[in-house]
Batch of 2 targets.
Target 1
Amino acid sequence: MPKISAATLHEHRAETIDRLLDAWGELVMTRGYEGLSLADVAAKAGLARTAIYNYFPDREALLFAWTHREVQRTMESFERELQDADSVSDKLRAFVRLQLEAFAARHLPPGQEVMQFLRPETYSRFHEHIEPVERVLTGILQEGFSSGEFKGGAPEEMGPMVMACVGAERIPIAQGTHDVGDAAERVSSFLLRALGAPA
């Protein structure tokens, strides 16, 4: 097991968890959720095979911890950038770009893949972890419809459509076949036209 380099045991534990989550994030897109074991993650993080059980009892716990950390990072990005947007349309553009940048840097396992291997009640818990991101989008849409900048729908109707358009770029971006900047412009322009935003 790696030597303790942090000032306290608490900091050492936090650093070790981060290493494990980083390792899981790197491995899951190349091997998939089904083909990834805790032993693989431990080896990637430089830990003994049995040491990982001191932190995570199974793959589901690792999935939830990783998803929670990455959603928190995404929320921090939203907080920094959305407050500086000049219009609701700019907020939606920023939302799309930040989501696509997250796909490129932090490959969240595709929901359909995860759903195949998780129990229904566990998948429901997994979905709860990503709800904060959807709430940000709902807030943007509500602001747009209330101000008249967006037209022709309601947040609860348009939100899933927006997420579907953004999500369609997940795999191409993760595989490097689509450029993040080009995809952000393409998806944003399509969504803003669909929402009736001013040109």
Note: Residues 1-57 form a domain with the Arc Repressor Mutant, subunit A fold (CATH 1.10.10.60).
Target 2
Amino acid sequence: MSRRVLLLPLLAVLLLSLGCAAAPPKKDYTVFRSADPRSILILPVVNNTQNVEAPSLFLSTLPIPVAERGYYVFPVNMVKRVLEDEGLSDPNLVHGADPGRLCNLFGSDAVLYVTIEAWTAQYMVITTQVTVEFDYVMKDGKTGDTIWKEHRRVVYSPQQQSGGHPLAALVAAAVQAAVTKASPNYMPLARQANDQVFNAPGIGLPAGPHHAEYGKDPAQGK
């Protein structure tokens, strides 16, 4: 028997083990299903970065993907005004408030807390690396228990074009990096992060009562 034939079963086992290792662990949705929220209150986000524009920009990306999962979402600008009237103008104070109190203000079933951990563009001479990173936590409005959470980091670096004169390509890459640094586009990365955490099978937000898959999404714990 040839050495090649002997190696084939070993390679098959190796590939199978790599595939299994790459699969992300599935969440336990027992607590979420017990809470069974129908409406979600999205709070102003906490900003742990130096970018003062990040909170309002990122907050604007949250309602649509949550609503598309089948939940009623309270208008975020209205939520912000009501919270300010209640003396909760600082997002850090809002995130530290009792979830039951927050939900009672709006008649919400659950509350979504999001923290911005990174919103940066790092210039590295011939490329600019743009990074966004977020923590997502959802709590039950009745018990205050955490019923779902996720973390996501998305990084983008413009790819250098191959071919042509090496010096011209280097100059073009440096110019592109400078432009990206001067005006980085964070929003596509923010939307990509939201899509991954809310829609990914096994880790995402289960389909809500206004979604066709409500109660039928086995990949998400039902």
Note: The domain at 25-117+132-152+186-204 is CATH 3.40.50.10610 (Rossmann fold).
